[in-house]
Amino acid sequence: MHTMGLLTRKVVLASASPYRAQILRDVGVEFAVIVSDVDESLHPKGEPVAYARELATRKAQAVATKVGAGKLVVAADTICAIDGDIIGKPADETDAQRMIMRSCMVGLQRVITGVCVVETNDMQSWTFDETSLVEMQNVSEGKIAEYVASGEPMGKCGALCIESGKSFVRAWRGSYANIMGLPIERLLPLLFKLDV
């Protein structure tokens, strides 16, 4: 167990995602969690990359106003896109089944994460996005129904967790951490740069 984090400044994760928290822990970043109360339904949804970046920015700014000076607030928003359509989290089991069936039929989806870091001394922000590709394979309706009944798809972008839904995925390209919800390969260098 380490006693010192990688960074000298306090990091605040503006997310309740256990996956994002685990990614930060895995690289040795110590952080506190403060979940934003931002409404995640932007209307209209618009272009997927801009949508993810906008939501991440809203979340980071909402939390940054609550935590005081000297912090680095990290927020992220991950969405799936099939063609130009944004696929969010399923509303219920029927919605989850529909999402997974569509993903498997179309075969390719983009996983897009918008990330925003706010430095709370002057409230300056840095925003970026990362896209990974997930190639789906055809699976039976029965297998989809079984997966949906497990409850695993609920609360997941595109109704699919890459960890538990490996049998639905033929291949993926890009950042695996991004597919999990936090592109740490790009976030960590930014945090080091701001840790002054």
Mean pLDDT across every amino acid position: 90
Counted up, domains total 1
* Helical content class: 25-40%
- Dominant shape: elongated
* Classification by helices and strands: alpha/beta
What is the CATH first-level class name? Alpha Beta
Distance between the termini: 25 Å
Number of strands: 7
CATH architecture: Alpha-Beta Complex
Strand content: 25-35%
The main sheet comes to: 7 strands, mixed
Number of helices in the DSSP assignment: 6
Low-pLDDT runs of 5+ residues are none
Oligomer: single chain
Alpha-carbon Rg, integer: 17 Å
Order of helices and strands: EHEHEEHEEHEHH
3D architecture notes:
It is a single chain. The chain is an alpha/beta fold and 196 residues long. The chain has one domain: Maf protein (Alpha-Beta Complex). The chain is built from 6 helices and 7 strands. Strands 1, 2, 3, 4, 5, 6 and 7 form a 7-stranded mixed β-sheet that branches. A hairpin with a 4-residue loop joins β5 and β6. The mean pLDDT is 90.
Task: Set out the fold topology.
Elements: E1 10-13, H1 18-26, E2 31-33, H2 48-67, E3 71-82, E4 85-87, H3 93-106, E5 108-119, E6 124-136, H4 141-149, E7 169-173, H5 176-180, H6 184-194
Parallel strand pairs: 1-2, 1-3
Antiparallel strand pairs: 3-4, 3-5, 5-6, 6-7
Helix pairs in contact: 3-4
Give a quick precis of the structure.
The protein has 196 residues and is of the alpha/beta class. It has helices spanning 18-26, 48-67, 93-106, 141-149, 176-180, 184-194, and strands spanning 10-13, 31-33, 71-82, 85-87, 108-119, 124-136, 169-173.
